[in-house]
Amino acid sequence: MTHVDRCSWCDRQVEPDDCWLLQEAPGARRAAFCRLEHVVPWAMRGARWDPDGAGDSPEPTAGGECAHCGAALGEVRLDLVRHRGRHRISDSFCSVDHLAAWARAGGRWR
Predict the structure, then answer these.
(1) What are the two backbone dihedrals, phi and then psi, of residue 16, each rounded to the nearest 5 degrees?
(2) Is residue 73 part of a domain?
(3) Cα separation, 91 vs 108, whole angstroms
(4) In total, how many domains does the chain have?
(5) Fewer CB within 10 A of the end CB, N or C, for the chain?
């Protein structure tokens, strides 16, 4: 994690090794969350994005299908990376709505 250091929903400081980072690919938008649950109100209110830092190297991406609906991802995708210590867990989505539905259902642990 480089330049995004505040939760996009509650504006709390996020820890580099304990956060959720969302990046639009390709694109220049990014969001960070201190808790997975904050994705839901963030999306409901209108998904306020931060600009992506120039020169940042992207995190490894997940598979080629949406983690919520299983549809093949198109040209634009949303990559959510869970930072937990030295571990990085990636999931990808076809839309903010599917990201929010997935988070509302408990994410990977539904």
Answers:
(1) -60, -30
(2) yes
(3) 9
(4) 1
(5) C
